[in-house]
Design brief:
Number of strands: 11
Radius of gyration: 21 Å
Shape: elongated
Structural class: alpha/beta
Length: about 300
């Protein structure tokens, strides 16, 4: 009997990746809800998800799954401890450093958010659509000469740093996990506090784990100079949402642009979204950083090939 695979988030899935999967498995594309997932996964060998579904132990306990696959680097949507306890492999992009160097989408989206925020593009466009044409109302700021602080100097953080140099920005990074041979006095701050004191703009590029959850809380954000900016394209829980809104309300932050929230998809009454409805200094996108046609297609094919090797 052929391997049975459930693709539970199939919308826009790469046709090339489909072809790879079809070469060794019966693939069932079934866009299920979170509530339906435990029942839907019962009779499959492998489950493919993106980020809209959480794969928790109640999915594992009712299924015959041997593999969960996700074309992501972050894995906070999968209960890794429960998977390990049941000998279920998790196939992802985590640790695939060489391949990930070919995927620029997250770094590019960070830059898109930075430009849109500093030049006030979304709010200017809203004004034009409403009949306005007032350039003085939407004066932005030059990036040239600004000080950019990057939390995390991995794949995405390093790309963002290179983009910043092209814009004549001054760059510092903070990453406690870099080896001593990778450190540079020119680049690296010795502590998060040092980075925040340095920065006009802070951008976050670290995974979510016990060490980074709530890394930027009210105390940390209070270190920033009044009028600073914050970007987060990593995971929502790294930046405390209440502290973020408080810093925007007080003027400690002149603006913020975030691609992630601590709960996704968010409740209609989510604090940050409610604030953004009434103010023009918070820009939110729906976890788009890695979501380009090219990057998603490339990563889906990569994961499909990994599955073929496992099951073949």
């Amino acid at each position: 009997m052929k391997t049975q695979i459930l693709n539970a988030e199939p919308e826009g899935y790469s046709q090339t990746a489909r072809d790879v999967l079809d070469s060794f498995a019966d693939v069932h594309e079934w866009p299920v809800t979170q509530k339906e997932l435990p029942q839907a996964a019962r009779f499959f060998d492998a489950l493919i998800v993106r980020l809209n579904l959480r794969v928790t132990d109640n999915v594992f306990e009712t299924s015959a799954l041997s593999v969960v696959a996700t074309a992501t680097t972050g894995l906070d949507h999968i209960d890794l401890k429960a998977a390990a306890a049941r000998d279920i492999d998790v196939v992802s992009l985590q640790g695939e450093t060489e391949f990930l160097q070919t995927v620029p989408a997250s770094a590019e989206h960070t830059w898109a958010l930075m430009m849109a925020l500093l030049r006030r593009v979304p709010w200017a466009f809203d004004d034009v659509k409403a009949g306005g044409w007032n350039r003085d109302k939407f004066r932005g700021h030059d990036l040239s000469g600004m000080r950019l602080g990057i939390i995390g100097r991995g794949r995405v953080g390093s790309k963002v740093a290179r983009y910043a140099l092209a814009f004549d920005m001054e760059v510092k990074t903070y990453d406690p996990h870099l080896g001593t041979d990778s450190r540079s006095k020119h680049w690296e701050c010795g502590s998060l506090e040092e980075l925040l004191l340095f920065s006009d703009i802070v951008t976050v590029h670290v995974p979510l784990n016990d060490e980074t959850e709530n890394m930027l809380d009210r105390d940390m954000l209070s270190i920033l100079a009044p009028g600073s900016y914050l970007l987060n394209t990593s995971r929502g829980a790294i930046v405390n949402e209440s502290a973020l809104v408080g810093a925007l309300e007080s003027g400690r932050l002149a603006g913020a642009a975030i691609d992630v929230l601590s709960v996704e998809p968010p409740d209609h009454h989510a604090l940050a979204i409610g604030y953004a409805r009434a103010h023009d200094n918070l820009l939110i996108t729906p976890h788009l950083a890695g979501a380009t046609v090219e990057s998603m297609g490339r990563t889906e094919v990569f994961i499909a090939e990994k599955l073929r090797k496992m099951f073949a």
